[in-house]
Amino acid sequence: MPTINRWRVLTGAVLILLCTGAIYAFSVWVGPLAGAHDWSPGQVVLGFTINGAISPIPMILGGFFVDRGWTRYSVAVGAVLFAGGFTLAGTAGSLGMYYFWYGIVAGLGMGFAYSGCLSNTIKLFPDRKGFASGVLTAALGTGTVVAAPVAQAIIKSAGPDAAYVRMGLVYLVIVIAGALLIKTAPVGFVPEGWTPPAGAPAVVNRTWKQMLAMPAFYLIFAMLFAGAFAGMMITSQLSPIAQTPMFAITAATAAVLVSVYAICNAVGRFAWGAISDRIGYINAVIVIYVVVAVSFTVLLTMNTMAGFVIGTIGLGLAFGGVMGVFPALSMNTFGPRYQGINYGIIFTGYAIAAYFGPKVGTSLGGGATGDYTQPFIIAIVVAAVGVVIALATRVVLAKAKVEAPAAPAGVNA
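Given the sequence above, the corresponding structure tokens read:
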């Protein structure tokens, strides 16, 4: 088997995902873009919705390329499309062009880059699937942490369009450097000095057709939707929600809270990815749903700065956990060989949430009173349903003996 430095590949993937994380700082742009172009906030948010909803196409196609050893090319094309679309979004003079550059081009690019970086790199860490997934998705979250205040500063001094152009050009340089570090994971890669833990079931690699024939796929698909629904609602509208009469937080403070949310999102991705290796992926997801429900309950019952901060922290950690745990759950259930295309298909659940989460928020929330009670209640119900689905999934996987016991502490590559 050819040798490969998995930490080098991980570094390249992290560099790329740090840049694509700017997508989740979107709420900082909503108000300024609406004001600069005389667009409504709902029209601006649709760009974010398109970006997320289009993701299954590059995720599945990119997964196809990854599983066939074309990882570097797929990632490089995706990275350039993302940075280019992000940059040119700042030149859009109409909603149609904004939707094209930010929604379609940047969305396609992000999907290709994310699929390649995530699916390929996790294959190099069979001993630490949750850890690797957590590090990569945390890079995405950290990118949001950095992007939010930078964008806010540029928007304040030069406008929202300039923020897209300037940041996009910097991202272009970084993603190209990261793509040069990417190498395809060898089939059946086993890190030196590691053996599967005693009692772990044999790895069974399932093609996408075999995966679709398993009940576990549909349950995991629904779980991902339930987990991403609340996160996409808040990610797309955190700043506007904070500034409604419901909470009456200033724009400057709201921008800070976007960064707080992003930090928690990044921490949640790494933390839950690592924790899930110890307590099991399904157990981790159940706890995440509970955190979502509690956080929205706090937002409903405490319309104060303190309540908003508590809710923001909880939702950031939870959404980060969703993104950190599900790639590892997918690989653990369906095997590493076809992880690229398999997780791309599963990720369609995220794309559906990317459509409905923001839509529910904009259509049922806000208004003259700035009341988000209905969207928050719906998010609580979705999280509760997610718990039920997760419990059912645990039973199904236990019967199939799919989910392996956690790796022992102290395992090193």
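The mean pLDDT is 86. Try to locate this feature in the token string yourself.
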